């Protein structure tokens, strides 16, 4: 036997017993690509070609037919909907009225295959819940990096264009496979430069790459672009020259990208420019942009994330600003609303704007990136967060008026419907999202955007099967761990409705005590937790800020009443005495300690679960998750100790004696000064922190 044969035999033996090393770069698209499926299509086109290629190389079953058809049943599903019929032995037919539908149908079949779920016969019809399913990249895209560390750098690698980075194709496939059909390339803190010819050329190149995958490109824009580019002296939306400028700029953009989607606008928010700078309203600004985009069928997604350092409860401000103008916005304006009234906290009640603007399309903005959930260091599956919001009843038109129904067009009949997620996709890590399990948050956003009736649990399971293995001994415990993971984060960070206990300089660790003389009060934890000798929490009832008054009955009453308020939101809406008896029979203080401790114990349990999974996972991904869970446990302890010890200075009551004792003292915890988590050049300031919890520097990216 010659040397080559020996090597081949050795490789064969290894291959049949080994779980191959993987770095996560394939995402959930790990189907073998050695199939030679028979696939025929009755038409050609660049999107159909993608569908054909995906099936030909990955579909292991009987022949597949792709048909563009014009039947009533199929056209009723819209251009992105599809039907699949047929059976496992003879093959399947995917029918759609447009190319996009065939693409989504192809991925549907492949998903069934990869989750071991191809049925003997199939007869399904699908159409998306929302027309625009969009990622918001908070990506510098050539601008100065003007936002938080968690978002620095660019996935698009604009300096490499027009050479196309290899990651684009996988990005497009991944999005198409879960139904995402739109993407905002750049950060909402937008640079005016993005609208100059040099950058529009790059936008065009990206749009061309994404188009075959049915993904449209959008841009965030700076409201004062005409001024900041030195072309006008004002950006007043009622000024004729300003209106003309935007019209001709939009015309120019459409020359580069004929199917350009539109703009995303963060106006007069956290220092960005906006119509208010010229004494105008958000309504004036949005309608001016809408008029410029309308001839091209473009839309303007205008963010409701606006708040001022004034006397009004921050949680009330978006509603006060936007709701009174319901009915006055142009038809191509969509108001983009964060899921909760403040700012992507670990848990928030729904924003009171959902259901409250019935004549204007309103869309949810979720944060897929874990800005407030341990960055890419923590395992926190957000399917449960998204589901919790979408399924919450606003009661806008009686029982059953869920956030999903108030935004998907069914309740108020809006033609344009949308849902967005702030992307967690990075250009500088092989596994795309920093944490292997963070990929699941991208995945679940897309799947829920396609069908908000799916359950977070079913989607988690689907993802686990495709990303790791179909072995039930792995799928069940890992899915269970994911389903508990966000609640664990809430428990060790901000249980019972607490919010914004984050450090001033970063959103990673706890600093419930922080006071900064120059800071706006609404950027400091004490504004939110209001701890004092009597109790804890923000009184937003009728006797307090009356934020509850912005909700429909009976939500208003149930949130507003201490005894009926969902305890998950208790301290969001009430200032509660430390001695108050909770539903469990414990006092508020004891209950708080229990939640903090439960969070820690849960993460310890995740460690145990994961370690048991070693034999089902390749060593690289196993070790990656294992090391991240270690960081997560030590962070959980950091959070628990910091918050419990700090609040104890007000409650003046012992931690229940059957609970684990704190492992650090308050003074040491207060000495941690982690100015900006990813700033390695600030390492000196991190020295103290490194001594205590050494592994976390780097934020996981
Ligand atoms: O939560 C905050 C983030 C900012 C972000 C802002 C927003 C892009 O800390 O970095 O700015 O939300 O949503 O505009």
UniProtKB/TrEMBL annotation:
<protein>
    <submittedName>
        <fullName>Extracellular xylan exo-alpha-(1-&gt;2)-glucuronosidase</fullName>
        <ecNumber>3.2.1.131</ecNumber>
    </submittedName>
</protein>
<dbReference type="Pfam" id="PF07488">
    <property type="entry name" value="Glyco_hydro_67M"/>
</dbReference>
<dbReference type="GO" id="GO:0005576">
    <property type="term" value="C:extracellular region"/>
</dbReference>
<feature type="domain" description="Glycosyl hydrolase family 67 C-terminal">
    <location>
        <begin position="433"/>
        <end position="658"/>
    </location>
</feature>
<dbReference type="GO" id="GO:0033939">
    <property type="term" value="F:xylan alpha-1,2-glucuronosidase activity"/>
</dbReference>
<keyword id="KW-0378">Hydrolase</keyword>
<dbReference type="InterPro" id="IPR029018">
    <property type="entry name" value="Hex-like_dom2"/>
</dbReference>
<dbReference type="GO" id="GO:0045493">
    <property type="term" value="P:xylan catabolic process"/>
</dbReference>
<dbReference type="InterPro" id="IPR011099">
    <property type="entry name" value="Glyco_hydro_67_C"/>
</dbReference>
<keyword id="KW-0326">Glycosidase</keyword>
<feature type="domain" description="Glycosyl hydrolase family 67 catalytic">
    <location>
        <begin position="116"/>
        <end position="432"/>
    </location>
</feature>
<dbReference type="InterPro" id="IPR037054">
    <property type="entry name" value="A-glucoronidase_C_sf"/>
</dbReference>
<dbReference type="Pfam" id="PF07477">
    <property type="entry name" value="Glyco_hydro_67C"/>
</dbReference>
<dbReference type="InterPro" id="IPR017853">
    <property type="entry name" value="GH"/>
</dbReference>
<dbReference type="GO" id="GO:0046559">
    <property type="term" value="F:alpha-glucuronidase activity"/>
</dbReference>
<dbReference type="InterPro" id="IPR011100">
    <property type="entry name" value="Glyco_hydro_67_cat"/>
</dbReference>
